[in-house]
Amino acid sequence: MVSRQLTVFLAGLILVAFALWQLEQARSGVSTRDMDIGATPATLYWDGNAAPSPVVVVSHGFAGSRQLMQAFSLHLARAGYRVLAFDALGHGRNPMPMSGDVTAIDGTTALLVAETRRVIAAARQIAGASGDVAVLGHSMASDIVIRAALAEPDVDNVIAISMFSEAVTPQAPARLLVVSGEWEARLRTVALSALQQVDPEADEGDTATSGDVQRRATVSPAVEHVGVLFSAHSLRESLDWLNRGFQRSEVPSVEPTGGWILALLIGIVLTFRPLTARLPQRPAAEPPTTKRLLLAIGLPMLLAPAIGVLVFRPFLPVLVADYLLLHFALYAGIQLAVLGRWPVQRGELSWTGLALLLTWGLLFIGVALDRYAASFLPTGERLLVIAALSLATVPFMLADSQVSGAGAGRWWQRLVARLAILVSLAIAAVIKPEELGFVLLVFPVILLFFLVHGTLGRALAQRTGTAASGIGLGLILAWALGVSFPFFAAG
């Protein structure tokens, strides 16, 4: 047993080391400099060459950050472009909140367009900039960069990833590349419609030209809304489009980082399990009967959204975080009432196990994500939001640890419990789509949380019971949600 644990631990360390080496190799040869454009935090990427080059302004989507767009920033910088990526209002480390009406073009959209134009203006002044500027945006930012380009007469090279925008016309933007993921059916339809504005006979993979207007719609295979950002196809198409527009030819090898980020997370998880074996073994809690289990899953799934949408009033400065707090609190309260037992009993909590879970889940995984994939280190204001969210997420994960069986539950038990909370949140979004539609965007965060942090929690629960696992996972879930969604100020 000892040798097996040691083998797993060493395998995890080796995987972590190799993944880190690969991820740092993808950054080699690229210089970076953090800067502020007014209140907007940005990062400049370039290959160290002093020769003048075009600047590509890179903008992330809703609940994204500069880190999420690094694959494009690094690849384009290795090709000789200067890349200026920034955190939009309310996102990442931007201290200024989003504001205005998120459903109106002259509301939040106008403010984001104005911010993007300020970044474009700063891009023209960067040392070594040739004066030529292109823009690249993902999801929400696809619409923002298109509108910003239309307002800047000399910005006519636009790349829209996972695009949805009503600003595209048959005449503008002059040069537009639209990249969609294969599993983004609705957005592929939007991209094809934009292409066929120029040539009604054009199809995906074609480049349509009419006078000075050139447009292309392409599909990255086997990826969805986030995977499209790490696809080698997306990177190659974007660089080829810019090279054609700026009459450049440098094409570095593609260094896809998505798989290595996944490998790094797997390696960190592998190093955790052998350490839990050193903790004192505690007896597993008696599982609920199947009837009570199904009742504890079905009732909150239906009642939490039904009650939540009736009583919800915004009270936190982070978009939909307040509703999530309410929903998780209702969900947990109903589950605990059905189970009839508070999950933490005297003497059950392993403080060492809790500290171990928080170290791996927040420190190691958090630092890894923040450097390579997504903003995970919170600003001071977000700590208050995380603290508020934890009041609901800790009871929710404590209840979930019993409903899912924690370390001892069967696979169907865990699967049904995970699906139920997603269905419950989706019901709320369907009931009030304008007010709560953004809740659906939390799904990738929750899925990643259950896949990565949930695996850590299950390993801990198998050794110490549900208390340390439930509390630790509740705190980590509050953290993940608190750093993901944008700050928002009404008005």
UniProtKB/TrEMBL annotation:
Single GO molecular function: aminopeptidase activity
Which chain regions cross the lipid bilayer? 257-272, 293-312, 318-339, 351-369, 381-399, 411-431, 437-456, 468-489
Please indicate which superkingdom the organism of origin belongs to. Answer: Bacteria
> Keywords of this protein's UniProt record, alphabetized?
Aminopeptidase, Hydrolase, Membrane, Protease, Transmembrane, Transmembrane helix
Q: Quick check: keyword Membrane in the entry? A: yes
Q: Does the keyword Transmembrane apply?
A: yes
Q: Name one Pfam family in it.
A: Hydrolase_4
User: What are the residue boundaries of the Serine aminopeptidase S33 domain, all occurrences included?
Assistant: 52-171
Which protein is depicted?
Serine aminopeptidase S33 family
Task: Report the source organism.
Answer: Chromatocurvus halotolerans
Organism ancestry:
Bacteria, Pseudomonadati, Pseudomonadota, Gammaproteobacteria, Cellvibrionales
